């Protein structure tokens, strides 16, 4: 069971990273990856390094980062830049 889950996890990450069909990775895919990572790491400690495969996914494909970059570009000239950065950080982690 754990080996098949590891293969499924690797295949799903490679699909998200290199697929031309999916332009952006949304909340559903991130939640799926997180759940699969947790289940796989709890089965055996040997599979914990496979979680690092998530870094193969280009940051341009993650939809949440696209929204935050737009907010940073719009607010970068304001005098309260630190407040805007903290607000964007809160925005990223508020939906998880």
Question: Describe it for me?
Answer:
It contains 4 helices and no strands. The protein has 96 residues and is mostly helical.
Strand fraction equals under 5%
Largest sheet: none
Our measurement of the CA-to-CA distance between the termini, rounded to an integer number of angstroms, reads 28 Å
The helicity comes to: 55-70%
Could you report the average pLDDT, rounded to the nearest whole number?
76
Q: Which ranges are low-confidence, i.e. pLDDT below 50, for 5 or more consecutive residues?
A: none
Work out the number of β strands: 0
What sort of overall outline do the alpha carbons produce when their principal axes are compared?
elongated
Oligomer: single chain
**Structural class based on helices, strands and sheet pairing:** mainly alpha
Number of helices: 4
Query: What is the H/E string?
Result: HHHH
Radius of gyration: 16 Å
Topology diagram in text:
Layout: H1 2-18, H2 27-43, H3 63-75, H4 81-94
Helix pairs in contact: 1-2, 3-4
Summarize the structure.
By secondary structure, the protein is mainly alpha-helical. The protein is 64% helix and 0% strand.
Keywords:
mainly alpha, 96 residues, 0% strand
């Amino acid at each position: 069971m754990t080996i098949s889950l590891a293969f499924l996890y690797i295949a799903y990450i490679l699909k998200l990273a290199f697929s031309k069909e999916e332009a952006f990775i949304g909340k559903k895919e991130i939640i799926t990856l997180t759940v699969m990572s947790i289940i796989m790491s709890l089965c055996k400690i040997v599979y914990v390094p496979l979680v690092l495969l998530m870094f193969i996914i280009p940051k341009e494909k993650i939809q949440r980062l696209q929204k935050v970059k737009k907010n940073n570009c719009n607010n970068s000239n304001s005098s309260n830049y630190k407040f805007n950065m903290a607000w964007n950080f809160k925005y990223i982690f508020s939906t998880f």
